[in-house]
Amino acid sequence: MRPPLPPFTEETAREKVRLAEEAWNTRDPEKVALAYTEDSEWRNRDVFLTGRDEIVAFLTAKWRRELDYRLRKELWAFTADRIAVRFAYEYHDTDGRWFRAYGNENWEFAPDGLMRRRYASINDVPIAAASDRIPV
Predict the structure, then answer these.
(1) Residue 20 phi/psi, 5° resolution?
(2) Backbone angles phi, psi at 22, to 5 degrees
(3) What separation, in Å, do the N-terminal and C-terminal C-alpha atoms of the chain show?
(4) Mind listing the pLDDT tens digit for each residue in 60-86?
(5) pLDDT tens-digit profile of 9-33?
(6) Would you tell me how many other CB atoms lie within 10 Å of the CB of residue 30?
(7) Among 48, 47, 35, which residue's Cα sits nearest to residue 110?
(8) Cα dist from 85 to 18, 69, 73, 98, whole Å
(9) In Å, what is the CA distance from 10 to each residue of 5, 76, 79, 80?
């Protein structure tokens, strides 16, 4: 079980988004993957993944490239078992170039509160340096 569980209210949908933001900001692929079903389906930009093992491998590689990653998520909409979020995150590469990524995610949850589908569309923008606050 991964509370809060569907069906979502505005309060529990906001809590689910906050918990996801906190988990991703740990940059711990194993911890993040535990929020997804064993057979979870992802689309992240142009990458399609299935299952926790692929999620862990993907996130491990991501956070090796995207250094000092810092994320903010915001609830956009929800239904009984789905949540839409918009987000922004900042990171720099190994050459010290900074980027801000903006995107939207659509999430679908199993009855036990684990995410069974995650579809993300993301755009990166070069920035001069990391800001104090990511605009969402």
Answers:
(1) -65, -45
(2) -60, -45
(3) 30
(4) 999 999 999 999 999 999 999 999 999
(5) 999 999 999 999 999 999 999 999 9
(6) 12
(7) 35
(8) 11, 18, 6, 23
(9) 12, 10, 9, 10
